[in-house]
Structure formats: structure tokens, C-alpha cells
Amino acid sequence: MTLETCAYCPRLCRHVCPVAVGAAREAATATSMATVALLVSRRAQPVELGHAATSLCLGCGACTSHCAVHQPVAELLRPYRARTAAEPLAPIDGDARVVCVVTARDWSGAFGRREAIAVARLRTGDALGHAAWRNGDDAVVPRLAAHLKGREIVTASGAVAAVAAAAGIAVRRLGTPAAARTFTTCHEGPRWGVAQLACCGRREGFPEREPEAARRMAEENVRRLAGARVAVGDEECAAWLRAHGADVVDPADVFGA
Amino acid sequence: MDLDRLRARVDLDDSPRECLAHARDTMPRATLALATRSGLPPAPAAVAFPRDEDEVAACLAWAEEEGVAVVPYGAGSGVGGGASGMAGAIALDTKRMSLVGPVTDGAVRAGAGVIGQHLEDALEAQGFATRHSPSSIWCSTVGAWAAGRSAGQFSSRYGKFEDMVLATRVVAPRARYGTGAWADGEDLQPWVLGTEGQLGVVTEVLVRVNPVAQARRLSGWRFATVEAAWGAMRAVMQGDLHPAVLRLYDPVDTRLAGRGTATKANAGGRWLAGLRTAVESIPGMRQHLLALPLALPRLVNQLAQNVASGTVLIAGWEGDGADVDLRAELGERVLAEHGEPLGPGPGEHWYAHRHDVSYKMAPVFSHGGFADTMEVAATWSRLGGLYAGVREALGRHAVVMAHFSHAYAEGCSIYFTFAGTGSLEVYDAAWRDGLAAAAAAGGTVAHHHGVGTLKMHAAARELAGAIPRFRELKARLDPKGVLNPGRLFPDVDVAEPSSPEPSIDAVSRVATLPAQAPAAERDAWLAERGWALRFPTDRPLAHALRRPRAPWEAPVLGACVHTPRGRAVFVDVPRSSAGPDPRETFPPDAYETLTVPVVPLGEPAVVLATHDRPTRRLPDGTVELRGPFAEALARGSAA
Fold first, then answer.
1. What pLDDT, in 10s, does the model give residues B80-93?
2. Which of B552, B516, B529 is CA-nearest to residue B599?
3. How many CB atoms lie within 10 A of CB A67?
4. ω into residue B489 within 30 of 0, thus cis?
5. What per-residue confidence (pLDDT) applies to B608?
């Protein structure tokens, strides 16, 4: 599997890439990014252009899932991307067995009441360093596992769940996949609950890196929702979509948390 | 170039990453140049992302004032270089115009920038489909389909995209206009479709849709020779059985792709397989497996031809259940007269993997070679010469295989796939010789990939008679020539042809007839020879054009006309994408001869009052069934 395979491909995964579709960016297609990376590797383009081009990749893996030859696009582009550092992990608040990972909204009290158990709390502003993990910072996962000391976690965030699952940590998810027109987060690949909805990159720090593209992606998602009410499990995703006009329902209303 | 003034009106990106992304489309020559480190096409100076017609107009007005070229760009799926970058130009990216409307009256409005698969997804949610399914459906836009006269894998049933387009909205530097159902005055649709943005940027398309098929029946068939298979395909198409798929792989393609099993010459096949296994076992040799044969194309073509045996055809029908069963049963009866049934397996395998072929190209480039495709077409009587001529021409430079799809009652397209060593000189020579061979054999040089820079000279020679009118329109709509300059159509020297003699091509079921002849005289001439017009008219042919057409109809295949530059002849072919289709657009008195479909006298014909099946619908709403299966279709039973 090489960069060439993507650079020479006729952009066969462009229709599943959330950035290429949402932001309508030709530069976000795997073929375009791989072309720049290839030219950088040949010293035909500057490294800075490689950083700029490949920063459009969210690392969501939708391209790889679609690709008939399973090209690991994000992995191939990773060496050309600027690394995103993980925030230091805050201390766990309390000593309960179950830890609620709090990213933007504190669900620990509601979950504790619903389950009638004591719930500790871990505050993290970066979804356990999800972006860093996606970008190949392999230190994130063992650091997380050590920090949690074998505890089970509960989360409303798909990004947190993805990192925790990679660390072999037991995860309970808030929300129910059976709820129609409901999604948790979109950046887990092509498994979103609403047809054709794609990740806005909120959890990847995409709005900070690429504000214009992220805004367009959010607007595109809202357009695709076509006025439907959606319950969003990830607080930051919910806030981001709501800010762009989506009718977002509080999951507590759906799940009774 | 005052980009800030444009930026105030339209979203503009002049970052190196976005400009570089618009430097090339999918033309394999550009991929080969990248692979061989021979450079990319120039990147544009900036990329504009208009959201609607007003913003496109603003962009074009700015370009005229600044004297800047504009290259319309959809998703860069073109394989002819028509959307490749141009130094100092602006790329006009249409993908922000991506709205899809609800289905109304059997049609949908779609923004030009909608990716094909997204359109089908949106339609499927409403219970409809265009069923336009090119292998580029994941990476091409609706606007590009219209601008380049695209064809999909189910074209035999649903037509090429030009048959599905009911209307377009177009923005040119000096005009905004509608075509087809949206035309206000002169309808320029035959000129907009196929001119690849030269006469304006297509911003929106009204597309005919179909209910999602309730049933599909696919099957595979083996034939001893391509000629035997052509006979079967022709009988199916001329019998108005309207398959969705009729796709024949030549012996080399059949052999190399492992479609079915060889019935003879297996010794050679086993020898090749054994050699491959042996070589693969040598460390480091696997990568040379591909490069070595590509360096010896004549030998490999000869060897492949010798060991190949038999040819496989995929046939498929889809639609509502009863109709599918009836037509498939009749069609399969025809196919069984000429070939051996292989069951549903090959057809279902093809259907499941029908878009995978595009993945096979990149590894060829990675291994130091090139791969490309060339789609040509001709009437049935010329198909053999076209196949042999182009195969021989390409085979001097590359390993060649072919399949035959997009079949019509009057002819068929041939899709050559060829691969050679990674040299631009070899690549260019293959194309030069291949295109010359296609023209010499009386075929069109482009069936559905369009023109671009790759075929612009060959297309100009083929459509020389259309160029005066094209330039007249261009001067009116884009007088400063800002739209994609230097591409469609360059100046070429074409000798004035002689006027064709009246003739009947019984194999293709077409006749070349005097266009001004009185109907009685013309019909008598045909009747004396045992033929009649397929689409009868009581007027001279030149005065009976522009009739409503169904997707599988080709009311005019060729024409000899008088133009300001003298006499011009348009090659006989059911469909082409070598630019616009002007065959029915000339004033009646300009026509000298017309080539039109004919049928044998006395062939059964049945007229039904109403019929929702894919058969010729007459202007009064009735449907005429004719051909050898007309009675069975009318009965609704193949018994």
C-alpha cells in the first residue's frame, strides 16, 4: 500500500469523504492529498504544503472503509500532517468504579441517578486526545489506560468511545443506536444513523484548523438533515450543529438520563 | 488579475493546495506524467466556488473584464483533459451547486455539482433512480455527465445521459439561458450537451427518473466468437427487447479477467498460469510481472489471442417483475440460439463489482506502466472493421483487450482497455494510431468519454460540419473566448466529402436516403428492396426531424449537409460524445442525405392503447411494438 495508489486513483472515495463532500473541497480528496504528499516525498513541493494539504484529513477512515483495495489513507497521510498534541489528563474526580468522561457537559450526575451507582468524573476538553490519537500519537492509548486504572467508563461521545475501545477499556455509551434519526458522533466512519450525514470535524479540532471548511461541512450536514430533529449524544457535536441551525434534541429527553 | 474584486462576489481559494488539486483531471496522460516525474499540468491561479447562477455569472463577467480564462471543473472525472489546469486561469468548481429537488412529474432538478452517487442516493430515498451508472458514478458530477454526453452501464434500457436530460440552465459570459423544457426561444440543448462548457457553464439539470426497479434478471453466456455474440446482441436489440445490460467481453478480456472457463487451448492457458506462478515465487519478481509483458505488447497480444478462447456476454433485464420475466425469457431464447448459458453467476458477479474496474488502473502506473481506455462506436456492419482496426493500431504499442457495451438496434460501442510501458511517447503514439484507425473504420472517436484535449483534433475532423455553427454560437455567447480556450474545437483541414449514394445497410438496419425526396418516392424505393422506415413519415425526411425520441431510439444516424464551408458528412453512429450532436439541428434545406433506421417490410407490428413498459411511446400516448417479438410482447407471454 503506497501513496502512489491513492495519487493515481481517479478519486473513487471522494463521495464518502466528509470534508470533500461537506466543504466541496477538491483539495480534500484522498487523491489530491496523496498527490501533494507524494510530491513532498519527492522534494518537489515544500513540507509546509504537505502539512497544509493533509490537514484536511480528519482521519475518520470513511475512505478506507469504502476503498475496494482498503488503502489506509489516513495512515499514509499521517507522516505529512502536523501533529496535534493531546491535552494533559485531569485528575479523576472521585474513586467510584465507573468513570464518566466529561467533555463539554457533565452527565455523571444524571447517569449515577439512572443507574443508582456512584460515578466518578474525568474532565477532558479534547475527548481523551482523540485528534492526537487519530493523528498517530500512539502514546495516548497507554496513557489513558494507566490513568483510568482499569475502571469502566461511560460516555456520550463517540470520539471518547473510539479511543477507549482502542485502549481495551470497557465502555458504556449513553444513548441507544436503535433510536431513529439519532446519531452519536459522525466521525466513526460510515456508520452514522442519519443517511449521508458526515462528520463536521468538531471533535478533531477541525474548526480551529480549517474554520471555513468546517463551517461548510456543518452547514451541509444541517442541509441534509432537512429539518429533521436529531438527538445527538456528543455534546460538542450537538452544540456545533445547533450553532449552524440544526434542530438538535437533548438526548436526556430521549434517553431519560 | 484583481482577485480581490472577484473574491468580493464569489468564494475564492488561491491557496497552493486547492490550486494544485485542480491542476489535473483524471486523464491518464497526466497520471503517467506524475508517475514518471514528467510534471503536472499547470495549476490554475485560483479556484472559484460559486453557489448559484448569479455567482457563476459574476465569475464569468469578472473573467471577461480581466481577460482571464475560466475552466469549468466538476469532480475532475474527465479522462480527456478537458478540465485540466491552465496557467493563469480560474477553475470554476461547480460542486457547491449541489441541491437535489423532489421528484416531480417523473423528473428531478439537480445542481450541476451533485456527485452522481449522491443523486442516486437522494432519489432512492424517494423510490426513484436515474439508473445512469457510469463507472465514475462515485467521482463525477451531473453537470459533467451533461457536458460530456456520458453513458452508464444500463444505457441499453435507460439511454445515455443526453437521453435523460430534459432541460438545463446555462450561464455564459453574455447570456443566461435554458435549454430543452426550460428553453425560452431557440433551444440550444443539442449544442450545450457535448461542448464541455464552451457555450456556458451548466448550473442545473432536469433529469428524467424511473421508479426503482422491482426485479432484475442477470445471466452469463459463452459464445465461440465475437461475431457470433454480435449476432445475438443485434437480434436482441433489433427485437426491441430492451435489456438493461448487454455487455460482451472479447476473448482476451474474457481470458485475462477469468470470466468463465476456457473450453479449448487450455494447454496454452495452463502454460501461462504456470509461468506466472513460477515467476511469482522468485523474490522481487512479482513487481516485474506486470512491467515485462507491457514492454512486449505485440508478443503478449499475439499470445493472449492464441490462448484465449470463447467470449463471455453479460445480459440483464430490469423493471417491473412481469415485464422483466417476459423480455428476459425472449432475450435468453435469442441468446441460446447462438451461445451457451452460464447461469446467473457471471452476471451477478459483474453487477456486484461493476465499479471496481477503476481500482485496477492505479497499480499499473505504480508498476511503471500506463493504462487507459478508448471508447468508440459504429453501426453493426462496421463494428468488425472498427474492432480489428483499432485493436491492431493500439496493439502496436500496448496490450489490448475490449468489451462491447452500450448496444443499440443500429450499432454498438467498443471499449478498449490498453496498457503499455510508462512512456509518454508510447502513450501518445497509441492514441494517435488508435484514433486514426477509428476514423478510418467509419466509427466515432468518442462514444461517452467526451473530447477534452485528448481527442480535440480527431473530434474536430469528425464534426467538421458542425464547427461553423458552433463558432457562430461561441461568438454570440462567449465572444472573448474565456471559457476553456484552446480546446474544443481547433482548426483542422478536412477535404470536402462526396455526397453518399442512397443505400441500405441490412445488417445495421439503416438506410441512407435523399433527404428532400418526396415521401412516396422514397418509400417506394425502400419497398422495392423489401424495407420500410422504422419511424414512418409522410413528409420528406429533412422536414420530419426532431420527433420525440425514446432512449433507445436513434432517429437520425448520419447526415450529409451543406454548410457555409461546403458539404459535410456526419458519420453514421447511434450515439457519440465527440462534441455536440448537430445531426438534427440544420435547416431542412441544408440536408442532402439522411441515414435513418429501417425495418424489413412485413415484420409484425402491434399497437397497444396504453403501455408503461419500455417501448416506443408515440406522441398520442400509444405505444407501438414491432419486431420479431411484437406479438409475444403484446400478449404478455413468451409461450
1. 999 999 999 999 99
2. B529
3. 20
4. yes
5. 47
Q: For residues B368 and B16, what is the distance between their CA atoms, to the nearest angstrom?
A: 28
Q: How many residues does chain B have?
A: 639
How far apart CA B581 and CA A220 sit, in angstroms, is 37
Looking at residue A195, its pLDDT comes to: 45
- Chain B residues within 8 A of A27 when measuring between CB atoms: 15, 17-18, 20-21
Alpha carbon distance B377, B226 (integer Å): 15
Average pLDDT over residues B517-546: 94
Q: Which residues of chain A have pLDDT under 50?
A: 176-182, 184, 187-195, 257
Q: Are B308 and B222 in contact (CB under 8 A)?
A: no
The residue of A3, A5, A11, A196 whose CB has the most chain B CBs within 10 angstroms, and thus the best one to mutate to test that interface, is A11
Compare all CA atoms of chain B with the CA of A9 and give the residue at the minimum distance.
B362
Cell of B235: 437480434
Q: Given an 8 Å threshold on Cβ–Cβ distance, is A15 in contact with B363?
A: no
Torsion of CA A151, A155, A157, A163, to 10 degrees: 10
> What SS3 state is found at B23?
coil
Quick: pLDDT tens for B604-631: 766 543 334 445 545 555 556 677 777 7
Chain A residues with CB under 8 Å of B113 CB are 24
Question: What average pLDDT does the segment B158-173 reach?
Answer: 95
Query: B211 with B158: CB under 8 angstroms?
Result: no
* Contact assessment for residue B534 and residue B574, using Cβ atoms and an 8 Å cutoff: no
Report the residue of chain A nearest B353, measured CA to CA: A68
- Across chain B, what does the average pLDDT equal? 89
pLDDT digit string (tens) for B276-323? Answer: 555 455 555 555 555 666 677 777 777 777 766 789 999 999 988 788
Is the model's pLDDT at B572 over the cut of 90? yes
Interface A-B: count of C-beta contacts within 8 A: 102
Residue labelled with grid coordinates 467533555 = A103
| Range list of β-strands (E), B324-452 | 340-343, 369-379, 399-407, 411-421
Reference B97, options B130, B123, B73; nearest CA is: B73
Answer whether A21 sits within 8 Å of B118, measured CB to CB.
yes
CA trace torsion B510, B513, B515, B517 (10° rounding): -130
Show the cell assigned to B391.
485493436
Amino acid at A139: A
Give the model's pLDDT for residue B604.
74
B172 bridge partner residues: B175
- What does the pLDDT read at residue A194? 42
For B523-545, the three-class secondary structure string (H helix, E strand, C coil) is HHHHHHCCEEECCCCCCCHHHCC
pTM score:
0.88
CB contact under 8 A, A11 and B139: yes
CA distance B85 to B91: 7
Give the whole-angstrom CA distance, residue B154 versus residue B175: 35
Assess B576–A contact: CB distance below 8 Å, yes or no: no
CB B226 within 8 A of CB B387: yes
Query: Does A5 sit within 8 Å of B362, measured CB to CB?
Result: yes
Q: What is the DSSP letter of B589?
A: G
Q: Nearest-CA distance from B151 to chain A in Å?
A: 17
* Residue B167 near residue B181, CB atoms below 8 Å: yes
- In B351-410, DSSP assigns E strands to 369-379, 399-407
